[in-house]
Amino acid sequence: MVENFIPLQAAAGAGQGWSSMIMIVLLIAIFYFLMIRPQQKKQKEIRKFRESLRKGDRVITAGGILGKIKEVKDNTMMISVSPDVVLEVDKGSIYPSAADAQQEQAAKEKA
Question: 28, 43, 89, 44: which is closest to 63 by C-alpha?
Fold first, then answer.
């Protein structure tokens, strides 16, 4: 009886190799479309925003400091936070101010 059972297990195991492989590929595809791709799109939008910054734009830093751009350099920006205070910050820590982001979103929805 046991002798008949072992070949049946071997035959069933051979077919499961492909189904496991398909399942793994399917999980990777789902993970890509639900997690990785949206994050890449968001990073691309932030990169575009940072490249489009010009003198006079209002921004907020990662630390929460609001200011107006006075000068744009290669990797840094000079931001005026009050009439006598100018800070030099890295471009990677700049985000659009909340009010500007809401205005842009509203403009996109109207179009």
Answer: 89
* Long-range contacts of 76-79, Cβ-Cβ distance < 8 Å, separation of 24 or more: 77/53
Q: Write the CA distances from 60 to 6, 50, 65, 109, integer angstroms.
A: 68, 12, 5, 23
How does pLDDT run across 8-61, given as a tens digit for each residue?
555 555 567 788 889 999 999 998 989 999 999 988 988 888 888 889 888 888
Backbone region of residue 66 per phi and psi (left: phi > 0; alpha: psi in -120 to 50; beta: other values): beta
Q: Strand 58-61 and strand 66-72: pairing?
A: antiparallel
Q: Tell me 7's DSSP state.
A: H
- 67 closest CA partner among 45, 84, 48: 84
Give 79-98 pLDDT, tens digit per residue.
Answer: 999 989 999 999 989 887 66
Query: Which one, of 104, 110, 111, 64, lies nearest residue 87 by Cα?
Result: 64
